[in-house]
Specification:
The protein is mainly α. The protein is 74% helix and 0% strand.
């Protein structure tokens, strides 16, 4: 009995991967093994960097809050301690936005916690 290899399914799998590789340079877009390796590596980077993106944004927010707080004579750690002690619950994303785009509102927060 001849060996059955299910060509339809395997070709569909390859076609699906090559469809994802559309736009890659050179043989990365049409040579199966090269495209597969490139895609798998790219997906690893994408997974890793989805996590790194969150860390990067948190660092950016902290820098912006620190800059805004230092304009009013507080360090970031002092500001956050006083904010938590006074019972104001705001996340760093909102605080950074206020510090950068709405300095009057940020000053009002600082006046309230001092």
């Amino acid at each position: 009995m001849p060996r059955s290899v299910n060509t339809v399914a395997s070709r569909a799998r390859r076609k699906k991967m090559l469809k994802h590789a559309k736009g890659f340079f050179g043989s990365r877009k049409n040579v199966w093994t090269v495209a597969k390796n490139t895609l798998e590596k790219g997906w690893q980077y994408a997974y890793r960097d989805r996590k790194a993106k969150k860390r990067e944004f948190r660092k950016l927010w902290i820098q912006r809050i620190n800059a805004g707080a230092r304009e009013h004579g507080l360090s970031y750690s002092q500001f956050m301690h006083k904010l938590i002690s006074s019972g104001i619950e705001m996340n760093r994303k909102v605080l950074a936005d206020l510090a950068m785009n709405h300095p009057a509102a940020f000053k009002a927060i600082i006046d309230k916690i001092k």
